Each structure stands twice: as C-alpha cells, then as structure tokens.
Records
---
Amino acid sequence: MTSYFIYYRVAAGCEQPAREQVHRLQERLAATSSVRGRLMTKRGEPDLWLEIYEEVVDVAGFERALDATVRELRFSDLLAPESRRHLECFEG
C-alpha cells in the first residue's frame, strides 16, 4: 500500500477558502477512491499545510482522481506565490 503526503503554503488571507477547498477535495476523493484524507498545519508555520492519504491500494486511480479534482477546484489559486503542491509517496 502507498501513503501520500502533499505539502504546500497557502496564500495569506486565503486560509478559510483553502480549508473549504481541502474539505471538498477530501470528500470527493473519499467518494471516488474510498481513501479518507487528513489535513495538518506545521507548528509555528500556520501557512504550511500537509494533506495525508494513507493505505491507497489503487494508486493509478487515486492519482487520476487527485489530479482531476485539484484542477477542477482550481486549488493552485489559493497557494502562496512561488508555492506549489509537493507530493511525496511512501510504501509499506
């Protein structure tokens, strides 16, 4: 199984809309892939966020759903200048 860790910085003043978008994103992923996500913020750096998706079995399907949903929600519009979503995958 694979776990996904996605981190990025949210633009100043966009915290609430970004939380709403993450909630939408995670609800859609749960509906399409049965994978429930979590959201965390870094202690001392509240603009640095981390999405966690664990125990993904259908990696290709999950990645397609993730990419499509992020594009559809225009999530990049809420990121800090010069920031992007960084994706790390771990197996185990």
---
Amino acid sequence: MLEIGRGTGSSSVALAEQGAHVTVIDIDAAALEVARERCRIHGVTVDIREASAKQLAEFGPMDAVLYFAVLEHMIHEERLESLAQAWSLLSAGGLLAIIETPNRLWFFDQHTSQLPFYNWLPHGLAFAYSRFSPRENFKDNYREPSSEMMNHFLRGGRGASYHEIDLAIAPTQSLDTVSSLISYFGWRRRTRMNRLARRYKTLMRQIRPDLHEGWFDPDLDVILRKH
C-alpha cells in the first residue's frame, strides 16, 4: 500500500506490523527522518521516500492508497491530479482511503479557522475574513494579500468534499464507497454528534440520498473500492 502524507510513520508502523508492504511518501524531509527512526525502533521495514503527491506515476500497482490528513493541504489542481493518479495505480478490488480530512460541506470549520460556514466561502473572501477567527495563531496571518500569502493560506487547510472525487475519478454515486469511520463504529460514534450536527447531516443526506453517509460527516474518513 501507498501512504501519502503521514511522514512521521506512526500509522506506517502499525500497518507494517500487520503484514502490509508499505510505501510512504511525504514532502517533509525532517518528518521522514523521524519515520525512518520510528520504523527502526519497531523493527519493521517500510519504503520511505521524499516525494510529492503529484508524483505517483512512478509507483507500481497498489492494493491500497491512503491520503492521511493531506488532501486539505493541497491546492485544487494538485488534489485532482493526485487523486486521478492514485486511482490509476489501484489494482482491481483496491482501496482508496481518505482519512482525517475536514469536510468542506460541514457548517463549522474546526480544523483551521474555528468559524461557522468558513469553508463555504470563496478563497479570497475567506482570506480576508480570517481576521475574525478566534485562533490567536491564525487570525493575524493573512492581512496583506499576495500570491505567496494566498498559497500559504490555501495550504493551511480549506477542506475537501465528494466534488473532487467527481472531477478526478468518476461521479461519486457510481463508485463503491465501502465504509466510513462513523458508519464502521455504528450508533456509538453517531451519538457523540450533538443534535444540531445530526440534523444537519440528515439534511445533507436528504439532498444527496445517492451518496454514502460518510461524505456528510464533519471529517472525511471514507474508503472507496475500485472494481
């Protein structure tokens, strides 16, 4: 399996301990050094490479590709290119997993701004509106617009949704979404959502009843199977 964006290797070790042949890529060289040391300590073999999520064509067929808390830190064009490449790498029956990615459609942005409706805003408006964030280490970062600052802003985390899947792979309703974290844990995990969150998720499912419920959770933790 190919694991994208989990540079320090904690999940890579867990996967390798279960017998998986794991390749890890990340653009953070320092994080990858931590991953190598972690794997050495745990006595597992993992193929660790410094590479971009847009450089997937060099890898051979995979049984699984994991995006671990990384899609939200990629700009739109990178996401589409990477997802398309990842899907082409998968063997028949292979799994594409998106893990810990904030859902752009959710009404509250807990990941970046801690503001309601923030991920619904166009990028330019969200950039300017960031000054209203309650986060002390965020609200003063984006006062003077420039291409460099906008790029930094977009990579801070703007959420993702099923729309990227539609564009990069195929209409999501035509694909096999086999699981999501909340559906896997069942009612116990659902009861942790407050009443407003449950009502909002119900509304979204009524609007798109053809999609798996995982596409309407606060975070995307979904698995697609390629046929």
---
Amino acid sequence: MDIHQLRVFASVFKNKSFSEASKKLYLTQPTISAHIRTLEEELSCKLFDRLGRTIIPTREAEILYSHAIEIIEKADSIKDALGQFKKEITGKLIIGASTIPGTYLLPSVMAVFQKKYPSISFQILISDSSGIVEKVSKHELLMGIVGAKLGNDQINYKPFVEDELIAVSSAALENNRMMTLKELIKLPMVLREGGSGTRMETEKILKGKGISLEGIHIAGIFGSTDAVKQAVKAGLGVSILSKFSVIVELEHNVLREIKLSDIQMKRKFYIVTHKKRTLPQAYKIFLEHIMAESKRI
C-alpha cells in the first residue's frame, strides 16, 4: 500500500461516503473505488460494507484508520521539515471554529498570519462548539476554537481570549434604565440552538442565578448568531450575545445594549486539540501566532 491509497481510505472512512471522498480529493468515484478495492485485496479483508448507498466501516477498517492517520501525519511532517529546511513553511490549515471566533476573530488573525507565511492556505469549518469538539475527538480536525469548555477527557483546552456576553434589544425598545437579570428574562427571549457555546454559557449563567429555561418566554431559537441578531432587530425579543458579534450594530444604533446591574457575564474561548495527536509544524506555528495575537484582541 502507498500513502496515496491511505489518504483515499482515510477520506472515505471520515466521510462515510465514496462520493464525498471523491469531492474532497478531486478524484473520480471509480478511482476512489479502485484504490479501496486494491487495499482490500492487499490486506485480504473487507474494509467497508455496502448497504445500498450507505457504507459502514468494518472492524478491520477502524484498526487500519488509526494506523493510517499516524502514517499520513508522519509523511506530512516530512514535508513540513523540508519546508523548514527551505526556510518556507507550507501547507493547508483546516481549523474548526464555533460561530463567534470563526466569524468575528479568526479572519483578521489569519490575514496577519498569511502575510508572514504566504504559502500556507486556510480552510475554516464553522459549527457549534459541541460539533467542533466532537470532530477533534474523532480525529476529523486537528485544531478548533470554541466558546465553551465541554467535558471530554480526550481534549486539551487552551484559553484563548476572553469574551463578554451582553444583553441586547432592538433600537426601537424604549428602555434606558438598568435591569437585573431576573427583570430581563421577563421579556421574550431569542436564543441560539442547543450545542452553541453562547447558548451553553447563557444557560450556565441563568442556572447560577437559579433561573431555568422552562420559566422563560422563549420567542425563538435560531441556528446562527446572524439569525438571532436579525430576529432581535425585528423586535421578536431580546437576547444574550457575544459583544464581539454586535460591535458594528451597537456603533450604528441598530441594536441597543441593555445594561444589567447585578451581573457581568464573562467567558473564555478555548483552542482545542486532541491529547494524543501531534500537531504538524504549520499548526504549531499558527498556534504560537494566535496566542500572541490574543494579547492584542
């Protein structure tokens, strides 16, 4: 077997699909199938059970995957070492991020990084915090940035930057006085979906004050921060959002901050990596970069 076959196998395994692997690797589906067939013949075992359009990895595939990932990473580390020797860091960074860091923090950090290392390209996969942590734990991502620390003992959480959660309303809401948190939740609330770091942190804050979601009038639940902002602008309700995400709206008086007298809502963003994975050189350099940039954000 060769490294190319292992890359094809790993992509099919991760995506649970020959067609998805074909798209990701820019190879035809017959080529993907041929590589898998060759591997199966060489190893004298079946790697995937085909059930109609669905494929299920066999036990042999699960064993092969853990070894394949290790071999692929070693091969990539050789490229990294040669890149260093040539005084040029090359490669592609695939970073997972929850909505706030992925949308409002990473783009500017990446722009500065690419000026130093123009041969490195980026792909940012945005999902909720729990989804990113799951992908890192399943070796589908090497690095992620999330807005909540979840209970997963396979994951390293490195504090990145501090965020402030604030209560916001539409500019049309006429209420200039400070409120308590309990007064705020008497108003209709607009929330992110479960699994979002902002939603989990909001629930944690409310629970700390003895407040349950069951006692709140939830006017709407949305799958993105932008959707929540649009709902608040339209007057559907008030919300608790990251200050990073509403800076522009507050400056242009599109949204209004509701000051809370009895609480200041702080949280941290975390860089997540798998405890058993070694980061390739390009990822290590990017990690050093974003930690340095965190002091300026």
